[in-house]
Structure formats: structure tokens, C-alpha cells
Amino acid sequence: MESRFNYAENPVGAKAAKHLVSASKVVMDSSVPEATKELMSLRISQINGCAPCVEIHTKELEHAGEPSLRINLVPVWREAPVYTDAERAALALAEEGTRVADTAEGVSDETWAAAAEHYDADQLAALVALIAVMNAFNRMNIITAQPAPTSYRPGQW
């Protein structure tokens, strides 16, 4: 697949991407466990169908030593016994936060309460920011038809 547009080579596109990267740094520097952030990023990207981001977050999880079973079962996390209750709460928040248009309430009170049981206020803020930033990255990649970067190395970006 060839991209429609290289936003990295466009001054406006590059500036927008730079601000998203800055926002994601706040999330990456948070105390939310790395595995949780990557699992959420992978799930959001799967829902949105963003091949570049699915590849990147799969490789990041592999590099961090996550077992392939945990990576492969992300799409069916509700049925898979390999995730902690905290990870399940984060994945539910990621799914509902990505699919806000699918229900009248967006993110349910039940999902928010489950996340609040496992994460403090700063971590909740980071989770919400991660959901927003990943959805923005996914949309930029999908709209401009970015191909999966098969040469991506963990930690590259």
C-alpha cells in the first residue's frame, strides 16, 4: 500500500504529529504499567484498523517480553484468563473510549468505576490521554493510508 500523503514532510502535518508525540510523552512517563499502555495501544489500533500502529505495538510488546499468548489474545481479552483485573479495566476503558459513537453514554459509569478501582487520578488522566492520542495517531495514519512500517524496531519512535 502506498500512502496518500506524507504528513512528516509537510510543515503543518509535521507540527501536528510533533504535538501528538509530546502529548504521548506525558502518557509514557506516567506510572501506568508499560504493558498496560502497550496492550491498550494495540487494542485501540486493532479496533480502528490501523496497520502501522498494530505492528508497532505488537513489536513493542514482544520486545518487552510479553508472552505471545497475551499479545494474540488482546482482541478477545474478556474471555482470556491471561490479563489482570487492572488490565481488563484499562482495556474496557480503551474500547469504550474508542467506540464513543456506538452508545449514547460513550464510556459507561460501570467501566469508569472499574478503572477508578485500579488507577489513581494521575493514572486515569494518563489512560484517557492515551486513548485520545492513540485514536488521533490511528486516524492520521488511516486517512493518509500509511503502510505498516515493516522495518520498525522497538523504541524507534
UniProtKB/TrEMBL annotation:
<dbReference type="InterPro" id="IPR004675">
    <property type="entry name" value="AhpD_core"/>
</dbReference>
<protein>
    <submittedName>
        <fullName>Carboxymuconolactone decarboxylase family protein</fullName>
    </submittedName>
</protein>
<dbReference type="InterPro" id="IPR003779">
    <property type="entry name" value="CMD-like"/>
</dbReference>
<dbReference type="InterPro" id="IPR029032">
    <property type="entry name" value="AhpD-like"/>
</dbReference>
<dbReference type="GO" id="GO:0051920">
    <property type="term" value="F:peroxiredoxin activity"/>
</dbReference>
<feature type="domain" description="Carboxymuconolactone decarboxylase-like">
    <location>
        <begin position="20"/>
        <end position="96"/>
    </location>
</feature>
<dbReference type="Pfam" id="PF02627">
    <property type="entry name" value="CMD"/>
</dbReference>
